[in-house]
Amino acid sequence: MASKALDTHATPMPADWRDFLALTKPRVMSLVVFTGLCGLLVAPQHIHPVLGFTAILCIALGAGAAGALNQWYEADIDAKMKRTANRPLPAGRMDRQSALHFGVGLSFFSVILMGMATNWLAAAILAASILFYVLVYTIWLKPRTPQNIVIGGAAGAFPPVIGWAAVTGDVATLPLLLFALVFLWTPPHFWALALFVKTDYAAAGIPMLPVVAGERTTRRQILIYSLPMAAAAVAPWALGLAGALYGVAAVLLTAIFLFMAAQIAFRTSGDGDLMRPEKRLFGFSILYLFLLFGALVADKLVLA
């Protein structure tokens, strides 16, 4: 008999605020909020601090809404994976209808507030990012193709564009390069994770690249996608859109990223070191994006 903790159709226990917070995927949201904040701070115009705070709040709420709708749709899948089995829905602490209402409500509130507080272009991009994550990535791509992360990575690449648009009311070359950076960073980041949780994805029937193509192909793809990511990382400096501080940080951090990706690409599954290179790259990839975007903001402050 299946454990009640993994039965998404069992009568749920009363949810509390921590369960609703868990629906928003706060750890994932932190990186989304940070890149959105950086996009806002490097914009060439100024925004009132209250409106700027509201814009970042809307990005956070929109990201949380997407996370909640993702967990609503994937509750049965999450129940099959050790990594996600203790989330509110598969653990039986919340019913699916509550998660759906919470996600839809947050989506509408974040988009409308963004439009009223800043401008409707930023609101439209925020709406597009939520819809892309839920409809294109979660519902369409993720259960059907190992390219789910490649295309679906666009969902997480929108925040710096939204932050920029909230200030300026338009989209320019720099935020598009930041979009490209996060978009190209996503496959190496998630495939490194997928390599050491491959059995989870296999058990849930998710066609992640290591499951359908094997570890060796995935390791090569990590390096292949890291190369255009490196070009996107250096491009703001090369094109004169950022100064030397950012340029030095981009070159050094990206060199470390490429070295770690190469270590993974040229090793075999028989190395017997418990996926340590993959785990190191996954951890460093998060730090990489934080440091790179932080360097971009610091660079602007130096030049200001």
Automatic annotation (TrEMBL):
<dbReference type="Pfam" id="PF01040">
    <property type="entry name" value="UbiA"/>
</dbReference>
<feature type="transmembrane region" description="Helical">
    <location>
        <begin position="94"/>
        <end position="114"/>
    </location>
</feature>
<feature type="transmembrane region" description="Helical">
    <location>
        <begin position="161"/>
        <end position="184"/>
    </location>
</feature>
<feature type="transmembrane region" description="Helical">
    <location>
        <begin position="28"/>
        <end position="47"/>
    </location>
</feature>
<dbReference type="InterPro" id="IPR006369">
    <property type="entry name" value="Protohaem_IX_farnesylTrfase"/>
</dbReference>
<dbReference type="InterPro" id="IPR030470">
    <property type="entry name" value="UbiA_prenylTrfase_CS"/>
</dbReference>
<dbReference type="GO" id="GO:0008495">
    <property type="term" value="F:protoheme IX farnesyltransferase activity"/>
</dbReference>
<protein>
    <recommendedName>
        <fullName>Protoheme IX farnesyltransferase</fullName>
        <ecNumber>2.5.1.141</ecNumber>
    </recommendedName>
</protein>
<dbReference type="GO" id="GO:0048034">
    <property type="term" value="P:heme O biosynthetic process"/>
</dbReference>
<feature type="transmembrane region" description="Helical">
    <location>
        <begin position="245"/>
        <end position="269"/>
    </location>
</feature>
<feature type="transmembrane region" description="Helical">
    <location>
        <begin position="120"/>
        <end position="140"/>
    </location>
</feature>
<keyword id="KW-0350">Heme biosynthesis</keyword>
<dbReference type="InterPro" id="IPR044878">
    <property type="entry name" value="UbiA_sf"/>
</dbReference>
<keyword id="KW-1133">Transmembrane helix</keyword>
<keyword id="KW-1003">Cell membrane</keyword>
<comment type="pathway">
    <text>Porphyrin-containing compound metabolism; heme O biosynthesis; heme O from protoheme: step 1/1.</text>
</comment>
<feature type="transmembrane region" description="Helical">
    <location>
        <begin position="281"/>
        <end position="298"/>
    </location>
</feature>
<dbReference type="GO" id="GO:0005886">
    <property type="term" value="C:plasma membrane"/>
</dbReference>
<dbReference type="InterPro" id="IPR000537">
    <property type="entry name" value="UbiA_prenyltransferase"/>
</dbReference>
<comment type="similarity">
    <text>Belongs to the UbiA prenyltransferase family. Protoheme IX farnesyltransferase subfamily.</text>
</comment>
<keyword id="KW-0808">Transferase</keyword>
<keyword id="KW-0472">Membrane</keyword>
<keyword id="KW-0812">Transmembrane</keyword>
<comment type="function">
    <text>Converts heme B (protoheme IX) to heme O by substitution of the vinyl group on carbon 2 of heme B porphyrin ring with a hydroxyethyl farnesyl side group.</text>
</comment>
<feature type="transmembrane region" description="Helical">
    <location>
        <begin position="53"/>
        <end position="73"/>
    </location>
</feature>
<feature type="transmembrane region" description="Helical">
    <location>
        <begin position="222"/>
        <end position="239"/>
    </location>
</feature>
